[in-house]
Amino acid sequence: MTAATTDQGSIFPTACHDHDACIASALATAEDLCRRRGARLTAQRRRVLELIWQQHAPVGAYDLMARLSAMEGGNVAPPTIYRALDFLLAHGLIHRIESLNAYIGCSRPGTRHAGHFLICRECHATAEIRDPELAEAVQASASARGFSLEHETVELRGLCPACQTPEAEAHGGE
Ligand SMILES: [Zn+2]
Ligand SMILES: [Zn+2]
Ligand SMILES: [Zn+2]
Predict the structure, then answer these.
(1) Are 72 and 50 a contacting pair, CB within 8 Å?
(2) CA–CA distances in Å: residue 117 to residues 25, 59, 95, 126, 154
(3) Which residues are near ligand 2, the ion (C-beta closer than 5 Å)?
(4) Separation of alpha carbons 126 and 117, rounded Å
(5) pTM
(6) DSSP three-state, residue 93
(7) How far is the CA of 50 from the centre of ligand 3 (A)?
């Protein structure tokens, strides 16, 4: 059984989860990982990662650029953002959500894995699935057809647990 490595049950953060701790832990993990790899997590790259971790929903490059510009009190050029995103992607600290052309923080950087996501169409909350069986099934399906898989992103769209409850409408989708 692979139950130990599979995150069954709800993987969406609940209202009572401590998001500040969540961000702090993601940044600490990133710093540690970069230190071990001898990669330079510059102040600006760290800020971009922090901005991406502000929410459990994907954020686009232009949104990030606007937020970083506001933080730094000046205009941040697109290449600056894209270079930071490239660095974070290369080190597996974030994932790109292809269908939304946006980015989300990775909750377990440092381990090679394909991106499998549940994306809520209502509040845009996005959760990364940790399911080795799903990864194996995708790999097996591709190789059974003689296809050499190079990049794998699975994006499943629907409603998160919070958006399925009737009272969800009371406190709005955003
Ligand atoms: Zn959180
Ligand atoms: Zn990940
Ligand atoms: Zn939702």
Answers:
(1) no
(2) 21, 15, 10, 7, 6
(3) 106, 128
(4) 7
(5) 0.86
(6) coil
(7) 22
Domains in the chain, CATH or no CATH each? 16-110 (1.10.10.10), 113-174 (3.30.1490.190)
Ligand in nearest proximity to the CA of 96: 2
Separation of 77 CA from ligand 2 center, angstroms? 27
Q: Which residues surround ligand 3, an ion (CB under 5 A)?
A: 120, 122-123, 125, 160, 163
The neighbouring-strand residues paired with 153 are 115
Ligand 1 centroid – CA 11 distance (Å): 11
d(CA 85, CA 52): 10
Tell me the pLDDT of the chain (174 aa) as tens digits: 444 456 766 788 887 889 999 999 999 999 999 999 999 999 999 999 999 999 999 999 999 999 999 988 888 899 999 999 999 999 999 999 999 999 999 988 988 888 899 999 999 999 999 888 998 999 999 999 999 998 888 999 999 999 998 765 555 545
Expressed in angstroms and rounded, the spacing between residue 92 Cα and the centre of ligand 2 is 7
Ligand nearest to the CA of 152: 2
